[in-house]
Amino acid sequence: MENLALIDSFSEFKDDKLIDRVTLMAILEEVFRSTLKRRFGSDDNFDIIINPDKGDLEIWRNRVVVADGEVEDDNEEISLTDARKIEEDFEVGEDVSEEVKLIDLGRRSILALRQNLISKIHEHDNTNIYKQFKELEGDLYTAEVHHIRHRAIILLDDDGNEIILPKDRQIPSDFFRKGENVRGVIESVELKGNKPAIIMSRTSPLFLEKLFESEIPEVFDGLITVKNVVRIPGEKAKVAVDSYDDRIDPVGACVGMKGSRIHGIVRELGNENIDVINYTTNLNLYITRALSPARITSIKIDEENKTAQAVLKPEEVSKAIGRGGHNIRLAGQLTGYEIDVYREGVEEDVELTEFSDEIEAWVIEAFGKIGLDTARSVLEQEVSDLVRRTDLEEETVLDVMRILKEEFEE
């Protein structure tokens, strides 16, 4: 039969797309049957024989011989005269098998058939990619920067699969050049239309957890368990670790001598400050550890309302709160408790919200974001430091200080 361009490309499809022989034959038959159905109204009486390795294809139409003038369906019936043009000894009632040449389908049908075939191959390919990466969700993955866009970086892996690293999944200090390798976790895989959208993340807490598994042998082997991870990407992270073997110091094993083991992880995350703490079911001790590097004098926990009040010496308060309030915020996320800090020896204090009639809500909120939610916690700070940390105007900060001082002078 005519070995048209469509047939010549069978082996090419098989080699390029790595499709197994059985799958390729099934796709080819589906495409040809669809074309025959459009051309003849039905494909039920057609036999399709395909050999994709050699590029051979045969299509046979089976019809019943009827008397001349009695053909009602020319797809399933053939007149005696036409049947005897194929073989002279056919009789009424017999079955006739006649080969259908591709050229007989018409040029337009052949072009549509080829396009349909390419589409089906791509659809099969995309389905396989989707399944492959769906199983990789939450795993570490490395790909190369292919194209840098305003809202995302487009990566390609070794198989040419496209992976998207959105801007909001990048660490603020991330800067990549074309051709550079990027590591992250496969966060999600979705089918958009027929094309898989593979999203990578470097800001997910899971990325940090997987880096621990990758870089620290005891975590990889299961001797140390990462119980919880919380992050402010590029700024600070807290990781709670535990070991069921009393001979292993989980924190020491993760950090290493002089931070040697965790140094590579910190560098990967743009010098993100990582606190590694021992996990414990003792809630008082867990919250105390979560507030490190601050030293807690005492702590009072309300388990019903999931709140904790930590009392510290005045010089420890700023450590507990941390720059920009990061430390206390992450400690709360790590433990699941809302933590308030109080200065030891200071009995009288007033919540900033009590001044809402004199201080605007957005100003109170600005102080709260850096962990200052009481009058004395604000008054103990330097004005210049408050201006820098809150981004408020100096005049606004001075006005707040004046209002707060009047409260205590009364």
From TrEMBL:
The keyword Glycoprotein does not apply. Keywords: Cytoplasm, Elongation factor, Protein biosynthesis, RNA-binding, Transcription, Transcription antitermination, Transcription regulation, Transcription termination. Residues 6-125 form the Transcription factor NusA N-terminal domain. Residues 285-344 form the NusA-like second KH domain. One of its GO terms (molecular function) is RNA binding. It holds the Pfam family KH_NusA_2nd. One of its GO terms (cellular component) is cytosol. It is found in: Cytoplasm. PROSITE patterns: KH_TYPE_1. GO terms for biological process: DNA-templated transcription termination; transcription antitermination. Residues 202-279 form the Transcription factor NusA first KH domain. It comes from the Bacteria. The keyword Transmembrane does not apply. HAMAP family: NusA_B (MF_00945_B). Belongs to the NusA family. Participates in both transcription termination and antitermination. Monomer. Binds directly to the core enzyme of the DNA-dependent RNA polymerase and to nascent RNA. This is Transcription termination/antitermination protein NusA. The gene is nusA.
